[in-house]
Design brief:
By secondary structure, the protein is α+β, with helices and mostly antiparallel strands. The chain has two domains: about 45 residues; about 190 residues, no CATH class. The protein has six helices and twelve strands. The strands form four sheets. It has a six-stranded antiparallel beta sheet with strand order 2-1-5-6-7-8. Strand 7 and strand 8 form a beta hairpin. The protein is globular, with a radius of gyration of 23 Å. Bound molecules: flavin mononucleotide. The site of flavin mononucleotide (FMN) has 11 residues, from helix 5.
Length: about 260
């Protein structure tokens, strides 16, 4: 038996190989981290533009995002929080930390998110003169299997929907997952949020009767997915309601934000 067949040598080779592989994997993770972060940020911008119906695939996302300003809003007061840097603020993390969020009462927690962060990052599309054209707000809430994360975009009247989209969820493809269907998302633009100062926007079971008085506030329900549909209605009601962005939208309109 040659000495290369000894158990000690086999173990040594296995050990060295595993160290080399570990170093390789660890360095790849470290080296690729900035690229991953950049891609994540780019993807977020793409989702924001898509929700607002502004995504143009023939132009770069960065170029299109140049007309969007990123701001932080204090959800407790409905006013901008200029002291908080939106690039450094992690809203998802803040939503889990008792120091930066507040527990919602059972009757308040329509979206089933349990805690609401004190600050939210919002996106404003402004024309060259600085007038607001669109307001893009982050929304989230529980469907059937998962928390759906997305954006709703409003026109400058803070009442007409410009678009809606979810970028993360784990609802069933073909059922609740139809929230991603472009045809369904296409039903949102033009719908109204508020009726007599209450959030009235939501999904109906089946199809909207276009001749009914409430049609302007209604979107078709997702077929075979009543629970996801209810979740979407509830999260829209929460985020556009008094514990969500309603105070901010109110202030924005009156110039007091
Ligand atoms: C495997 C499986 C996956 C389902 N996924 C969803 C879903 O993602 N969203 C949903 O609302 N309902 C889903 N359902 C159906 C719900 O259990 C429930 O039957 C449905 O929401 C009732 O909707 P309907 O009244 O429109 O039929 C699923 C059912 C099964 C068996």
């Amino acid at each position: 038996m040659s000495s290369n067949d000894s158990t000690a040598k086999t173990l040594l080779v296995a050990f060295i190989l595993s160290i080399v592989c570990a170093i390789f994997v660890a360095s790849a993770a470290v080296v690729l981290k900035p690229a991953q972060e950049a891609n994540k940020a780019l993807d977020r911008k793409r989702n924001i533009l898509a929700a607002a119906g502004m995504l143009d695939d023939s132009r770069s996302v960065e170029e299109q995002f140049a007309q969007v300003s990123t701001r932080v809003v204090d959800l407790r007061t409905g006013k901008f929080a200029p002291d908080i840097d939106p690039q450094k603020y992690d809203q998802r993390k803040a939503a889990k930390d008792p120091a930066t969020s507040q527990k919602l009462g059972e009757d308040e927690d329509l979206a089933k998110i349990s805690r609401r962060e004190n600050y939210a990052v919002v996106y404003l599309v402004e024309d060259p003169a600085g007038a607001i054209e669109k307001i893009i707000l982050p929304i989230r809430g529980y469907g059937l299997w998962s928390t759906l994360h997305g954006f709703i975009a409003l026109q400058s009247d803070a009442n007409t929907v410009a678009g809606l989209g979810f970028y993360e969820h784990a609802e069933t493809p073909g059922l609740g997952g139809e929230v991603d269907n472009p045809r369904w998302k296409g039903m949102w633009p033009g719908k109204k949020v508020y009726r007599d100062d209450e959030v009235a926007l939501g999904l109906v079971k089946g199809s909207v009767d276009a001749t009914s008085a409430g049609a302007a506030w209604q979107v078709d329900g997702l077929a075979g997915a009543t629970l996801t549909s209810r979740g979407v209605t509830n999260l829209v009601h929460f985020w556009l309601g008094e514990n969500g962005f309603e105070p901010f939208l109110h202030n924005l309109k009156s110039g007091e934000a």
